[in-house]
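Hi support team,

I'm filing this because I wasn't sure whether my run with uridine-5'-diphosphate finished correctly. The job status page said complete, but I'd like someone to confirm that the output block is well-formed before I use it downstream. Pasting the exact inputs I used:
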Amino acid sequence: MDRRLSIITPFFNEGRGVEIFSREIDRIVDDLAGYDVEIVWIDDGSTDDTLSHLLAISAGKPRHTVVELSTNFGKEAALTAGLDVASGDAVIPIDADLQDPPDLIPAMVAAWEAGAEVVLAKRSSRASDSAVKRKTAQWFYRVHNQLSRTKIPENVGDFRLMDRTVVDAVKRLPERQRFMKGLFAWVGYRTVTIEYVRPPRHAGKTKFSGWKLWNLALEGLTGFSTAPLRVWTYIGLLGAAVAMCFALYILVRTLLFGIDTPGYASLLIAIVLFGSLQLVSIGIIGEYVGRIYTETKQRPNYLVRRIHRGAA
Ligand code: UDP
Ligand code: MG
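And here is everything the job wrote out:
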């Protein structure tokens, strides 16, 4: 029997981009002779006509499945929904905007056939991103990989091929805060990397603003490291040591030379500095407490309105 491949794509307000994307995917799938290909499209609560485009394109095509989420749950949740629905021996998540070139798929499949359990698509250049995004992405990978035992491969997005064993492993991770890149990296497995040049979006706008990316980065850091919590113990100890030395110095000086009153500036600086440091540390604890709170609520990651199989 033919081996089964699942291609999963999350869509959020991609509008007319759907058609071009679907044409590209069809072209690649036709080339993948000898495989039973399943296409899973997840509509992540789009508020434009994305869903009707998806349904129209997949009408009467047995290999298509359209998963309709009840509202916008975010890309990570949409991908999770895709992984849950996909039944292939290998699963390939790919973005809808053709920034993940479908032309790479045959090479990924070949690497999988050669024994890889995970095939990563790595951008050899970020030239299509703005200078700011490039720099902040670089910082994120550096800080994250310093702090966390789970190393996220640099410049690798969600575009990859995963063997069924890997998909099942990812599905066993129960967390609500799903930083997919981190989860994918956490499970490990035999990995091969393919390089590509990331083109700009073919239509529409990015759904990830600076603020959303910042929050995604926090999700990654807090999800895979407790270093930001622990660092305060050491900052505190260091502060105490400095204060102790200073106290000794003041004491000796006062005994020898008597009291000298000025000191308003240094006092104020010390109060403001340590006050703010304490607020920052409480804020960081808050980040973790908030996440504990979300996890304990055990809400599902997404809700499905309907699954259209063979787009009936
Ligand atoms: N996406 C989604 N839900 C969201 C935001 C984005 O399903 O809430 C999808 C989007 O339709 C696209 C993919 O996630 O297929 C990547 O989004 P985008 O291209 O905006 O991200 P970028 O490439 O700029 O990081
Ligand atoms: Mg994109």
